[in-house]
Amino acid sequence: MILSVENVSLAFGGVRALQDVSFDVGEHEIRAIIGPNGAGKSSMLNVLNGVYHPQKGTIRFKEKIFKDMDSHEAAALGIARTFQNIALFKGMSVLDNIMTGRNLKMRCNFLQQALWVGPAKREEMEHRRAVEEIIDFLEIQHIRRTPVGRLPYGLQKRVELGRALAAEPKMLLLDEPMAGMNLEEKQDMCRFVLDVNDEFGTTIVLIEHDMGVVMDISDRVVVLDYGRKIADGTPDQVRNDQKVIDAYLGVTH
Amino acid sequence: MPIEVIFFIEVLAGGLLAGVMYALVALGFVLIYKASGVFNFAQGAMVFFAALTFVSLVERGWNFWLALVVTLAVMVVLGLVTERVVLRPLVNQPQITLFMATIGLTFVLEGLSQLIWGSQPHGLELGIPDVPMEWLSQRWNINISQFDLFAAFVAGLLVAVLAVFFQKTRIGRALRAVADDHQAALAVGIPLQHIWAIVWAVAGFVALVAGLMWGVRNGVQFALTFVALKALPVLLIGGFESIPGAIIGGLIIGATEKLAEVYVGPFFGGGIESWFAYVVALLFLLVRPEGLFGEKHIDRV
Amino acid sequence: MLYREAGQFKSSYAQDQQIFPIRQDRVAIALLLVLAFVVVPLIGNQYWLGALITPFLIFALAALGLNILTGYAGQLSLGTAAFMAVGAFMAYNFVLRMPWLGVIPSFILAGLCAAAVGIVFGLPSLRIKGFYLAVATLACQFFVLWMLQRVGWFTNNSTSGVVTAQQIVIFGVPFDTPARKYLFTLTVVAVMALLAKNLMRSETGRAFMAVRDMDVAASVIGIPMMKTKLLAFAISSFYCGVAGALHAFCYLGTVEPEAYSLDLSFRILFMIIIGGVGSILGAFLGSAFITLFPIFLNLVSGAISHATGFEISHAVISNLELIIFGGLIVFFLIVEPAGLARLWQIAKEKLRLWPFPH
Amino acid sequence: MTVGTLDTFPKLLMHHAQLRGARPAIREKDLGIWQTWTWKRFADEVRALACGLHADGLRRGGHVALVSDNRPRLYAAMCAIQCLGGIPVPLYQDAVAEEMVFPIQNAEITLAFAEDQEQVDKLLEILPRCPTLARIYYDDPRGLRQYQQPQLRSYDELLKAGSEALARNPGFVDAEIDQGSGSDVAGMFFTSGTTAAPKGVVHTHASLLGPARTAAEMERLGEADVILAYLPPAWIGQNIFSCAQAFVTGYCICCPEAPETLMNDMREIGPTYYFAPPRVLEALLTQVSIRMDDAAAPKRWLYRKFMGIANRVGGALLDGKPVGFLDRVAYAIGDLLVYGPLRNVLGMSRVRIGYTAGEAIGPDLFKFYRSIGINLKQLYGSTETAVFVCIQPDGEVRADTVGPAVKGVELRFSPQRELLIRSEGLFREYYKNPEATRAAKDAEGWFHTGDAGFFDAGGHVKIIDRVKDVGKLADGTLFAPKYLENKLKFFPYIKETVCFGHARDQVCAFINIDPDAIGNWAEKRNMPYSGYTDLASRDEVYDLVRECVERVNADLAAEPEIANSQIHRFLILHKELDADDGELTRTRKVRRGFIGEKYDALVSALYSGQTSVHVEAQVRYEDGRTGTFSADLKIRDAKTFAPGAATRAA
After folding, report:
1. Chains D and B touch (3+ CB pairs under 8 A)
2. Contact with chain C for residue B89, Cβ under 8 A
3. How would you classify the pairing of strands D273-275 and D252-255?
4. What Å distances lie between residue A37 and A15, A186, A207, D287, D565, CA to CA?
5. Is residue C230 part of a domain?
């Protein structure tokens, strides 16, 4: 068990986003979190990644207990994420964006970098090579030097995945990676997500609306509704769970 | 009443009245920011331009009221031209770009005003003597200049008019809608360009009033543009979107500045009014980044 | 058109990421350096060197400093002149009070003092953003100038508040003639520009740009907000401090607070807006434009008055200068927010693709 | 080892590893930069690989299939196989699985090298029908982690096992190499063949290295030269230019990153020695004209003006012929402003020697490249002759010939004008196909090329067409379909065309439009279109193509002996001719007979005066779904000119 969330509750002012949610994620697993809009999926992700601090409950990540995490600490621990609406650095090229993902791993201080010759240059070259492997892996060699702002939606999503991978994360949080994509782009992204899990062994926590995708690629699924966990299990168990069907078909509570 | 207390009241009153003057200028900033989300750094230059135009016309023998109306017309035209040439092409640019554009505008206005009217300072006389009010000084021999009170009165009047204008009239409501979200306002059919033109014209009028008040106080000369720098701390405290905020902010800055000048200044060797207002504003900002009345910004991930 | 890139392949990452990957650019830069270091000092006369090129370099260095802060790290600052003033005065005091230090170490120490001031006035950037931050740097501008005038220690208690800068002597060699001052300035600016370029293309530069583009995302992927922003303020102020020292020692010859007024801060801000926000080259192009433009204006007005006999007074010219600068700011912000540097880049791109349009 | 005995690829490799060990042998654009293999590393990897293969049972005479893009590891594998006396059999990497069955069965292939998952899947698909296939080595492990098939083994494992074996017995490979001799079989290349089943052309070390060395000495190729290896490894030209000649002279082979980044890689490397079949040159010219159309007016004017000068004077200057001073100056300016940058953007600034062959090239297309200063020359050869039969030497370059015979090649024409050849480069035989071998190579050793042609005045060979395609119109005049098709293909709008006329009274043609060029042309006139088929059915497009056909007719009218083989009627095909549908060979050559039968209805409609013809066809959409497609194809007449009367069209 790489991660376990125990009775987490989160509220903004009066609004209770998450109520007493507990679930766990196994090592190298593809864990999906699904639920109708406003069920608290993104909030959950933001708790895991330290952007929001839950009022109640704890998070256990690799045997370390956290009341709450700050995002900087989460990144250092090896939790990387992508955002629902793309959060790339518009002023930089694809290569620079992905290299930023490796900032935590760079050791040289700014004086050495200013001097450039010597350790800083060597370090830059090593990290460049690691990033090139990711670029090769995501098949985006042809847009290496293009400013990110100019790329189509599908490619921007891939670059963001690249940036998250650059940090060599233990756990990767994907916030609706397939939103707004056509059939072909979805297939590509699924392939990449599976390859990441398969090639690098990264644990993946996935939020996604497209049931087809979720059922195909995830090992286990958590279903949230109005901030509460209403189902947890393999895709088949969840698909036939009556509570889930009600939640989605909108039976009144 | 002991001499120190009288002296303190005088200094406080002087400070408050100076604060009113700051508020007047700050009002121009708030107006434009409220309606177009643009922090118009050139408001100071507009104040100077308005004062200079008015004074030059009066010196050329124009009747007081005629000069006033013509200057107002000139300011309205200036507002329209600015909106058309500078702001419309930059409509959805980030705020920093618009801010820098207004700095550019400041320099254009400064150059223009001195080119047309020359750059020697002018005295300005509004027919109100800068002499202490008699009954006040007899009763408690506190001498507060008549003119300051008059200025305070004008400012109060202006604020009331603007408050009513914003809250009650149809255009006022449209202005507030535009301030919140340009696209949304456009969506419901508010003629954005039209509204901005009005806003800039009103801001021109406020600049004129401020220019007159400041002109009488310090004379109409180039230094007037730096009055904008004085308005900044006021806005920081009062918040950029609220008119009452601008007035109260002005009073706070005016009072603290004067008091500090008199009581604290000597320890630092005097002349601290140039930076003291900023320090006050900064302290305020660190506590409440969006100022007294401003809304809280929430950054969504 | 001028580029012949066929055959210039890269077989190592070091080659791929060098500052000038294309040979034609490397040749051009080499020629430029030779021209700057050898030809200009020989043929330059007192006026051209002293009043034009040296100030251009000094202001370029200051603009470079501001560009690091505003262009790369996205923190708006209106206090550049104050940091220059700190640099100038501290350099004067270090040379005055610790002559054994030598000029260059005292310039570096002066720069560090400016950096310290920069960090202090950079602290608000942790909580406030955008033009709110401009106010914090404005406070710095007024506070520093006030302090330099009030506290006697800085001006060694000189009555007039104006102090003559000492002569620069390095290893016994006096740098007194305009040519030598120019060479000294050029060396300092060239080295610091290289250091800045290296910094901006490595991890620090990327951290700055990440904070500029979307600081929320930057903090989530682990970039320390506090450290990055304060580092940007420190480095930027260091560059402005050294520029201030050079300004006093190699250009004005005197150290006086009035030389570092708010107006100078605005001029340097103009330089990076017109020159190109967020580019090393932009600082140089902007500085060249703002320094040379008034001279050009004088020449033009001189020619007009000569041709038409209509004498244009000096006041009118300075007003025209103001109007044109202001107008250009608005023009550039509308037409090309990334300034001359972006136009230069587009032209270069077109030349590389010549004769094809895309 | 004295130079004389360097008669096999492995011996040459070891020679280079000794002589110029540190120089680059192969570069490959990977992970953003050009990774370099020096000759020494190349040799070491080959030695280790050879040991590994030996351990896996490869013995002298064993055939090994290779299905991969141009990559250093492909060349290493081929040479390692040759070290053990094995025979590498490169196959087309873009061929479908079905097409690999025959070669593997025919050559009883036991071991195979597959580049990545795509090629491995193809081999696994046909595994049941190829019992001999015991081992498949894959290079790129991407996606193959879960594959459990016993035959699969990674290239890295093979290499590791090989280096361990090498450590145990260092002298083994060198001993094996010494056993090899010039007459051993060095490789087998399956001809795509425009006719029946493919034939395995068996080549020895001598027959590959001989012509390679002669041509290299003729063109003074040296170790400093550079070539870009981008053509399919299964094609003989690729093996001569990027393998044999590299082994003979020691120059550097550069492999591009991926087919899509070819233009960029070409520009980065700037090769000095370049080979391109006519269809590649056509595609390049189309790109140039499309991009120039988008340029701003002044740039377009400048381009047209200087290209006019280049057309007039460029070729002559390159051939060293006398040119007026004014023209020379104008050309020099043009070189600075247009031709130099054009060569630079195309990556051809450093090209010293450029060849084109494989099929006859349109004269205007050929002239274009020479006019902008690229030393493009024609040569003639085939798989069976290890390419070099005729080469145009510098200075004697002409648009419509293939040059004189190369030193050591005997040449004569049979009464039916068929070209017969005898040279050291002749292949040994068609593998397990004695009848075909006897048919191609007669008793005195003359090889029947199947191409028709004649000697022109200057002693150059002039190729007309394939013997079986050269026909006669009903009235006996010469009908050379390829000659007409090349003239039509010069226009950027026409991508491929098939002419019919043998034993008929008129010539008619099928036309395939070029989707990019026509698409761009349509967008300029903001004419919306949904795809190729929609574009192909438009009247405006028909008018555009008719204009092109009529300009070709005007050209033909000026040449008396083929004047009345002008094109009378044509139609635009509803789909692009595609190799996957068997209409083109793997090297994109038109399979005339097959097309004639498949679209017989259309041909008869052309000749029966109909103005349109209904067509039903199977169409495969992009994502694999197939559907039937039916439409009425319009047929148009084209204006023809009285022979000799029309002026020479520009």
Report:
1. no
2. yes
3. unpaired
4. 15, 20, 11, 48, 71
5. yes
Taken as a whole, chain A contains a residue count of 253
Q: Name the residue facing C139 among B96, B110, B279 (closest C-beta).
A: B279
Q: What is the CATH code for B3-287?
A: 1.10.3470
Tokens 């209106």 belong to residue: C78
How far, in Å, CA of B50 to CA of D584, rounded?
81
Show the tokens assigned to D155: 């290239």
Size of interface B-C (CB pairs under 8 A): 128
D81 phi and psi angles, rounded to 5 deg: -60, -45
**pLDDT 10s digits, D25-80:** 999 999 889 999 999 999 999 999 999 999 998 999 999 999 999 999 999 999 99
Determine whether the interchain pair D142/A195 forms a contact, defined as Cβ–Cβ distance below 8 Å. yes
SS3 content of chain A, % helix, strand, coil (to 5): 45, 25, 35
A chain contacts of residue D35, beta-carbon cutoff 8 Å: none
Identify the residue whose tokens are 């397990």: D432
- The Cα of C214 is separated from the nearest Cα of chain A by a number of Å equal to 6
In whole angstroms, what is the distance from residue C279 CA to residue C285 CA? 10
Q: What is the pTM (predicted TM-score) of this model?
A: 0.85
C278 in any annotated domain: yes
Q: Collect all residues from C whose CB is shorter than 8 A from any CB in A.
A: 12-14, 16-17, 195-196, 198-199, 202-204, 206-207, 209-210, 212-214, 216-224, 231, 235, 278
| Chains C–D, number of C-beta pairs less than 8 Å apart | 71
d(CA D190, CA D65): 11
Quick check: D567 and D509 in contact, CB under 8 A? yes
Q: CB distance from A73 to chain D under 8 Å?
A: no
**C220 min Cα distance to partner chain A (Å):** 5
Average pLDDT of chain C? Answer: 89
Count, residues in chain C: 358
- Can you spell out the DSSP letters for D293-323? HTS-HHHHHHHHHHHHHIIIIIHHHHHT---
Which range of residues forms the domain containing residue C346? Answer: 36-353
**Per-domain boundaries in chain A:** 3-249
pLDDT > 90: percent of chain C: 43
**Smallest CA–CA separation between D538 and chain A, in Å?**
30
Domain ranges of chain B: 3-287
Which chain B residues touch C127 with a CB distance below 8 Å?
285-286, 289
A86 touches chain B (CB under 8 A): no
Residue D480 has pLDDT above 60, yes or no: yes
Find out if CATH 3.40.350.10 is the number for domain A3-249. Answer: no
For C56-74, what is each residue's pLDDT tens digit?
Answer: 999 999 999 999 999 999 8
The structural domains of chain D, ordered by start, are: 9-274 (3.40.50.12780), 278-466 (3.40.50.12780), 471-637 (3.30.300.30)
Check CB contact under 8 Å for A75 and C206: no
Q: Does B115 touch chain A (CB under 8 A)?
A: no
List b or e across D146-159, with b for residues whose CB sees 16 or more CB atoms inside 10 angstroms. eeeeebbbebeebb
CA A236 to chain centre: 23
Query: How deeply is D196 buried, as exposed, middle or buried, from its count of CB atoms within 10 A (0-12, 13-18, 19+)?
Result: exposed
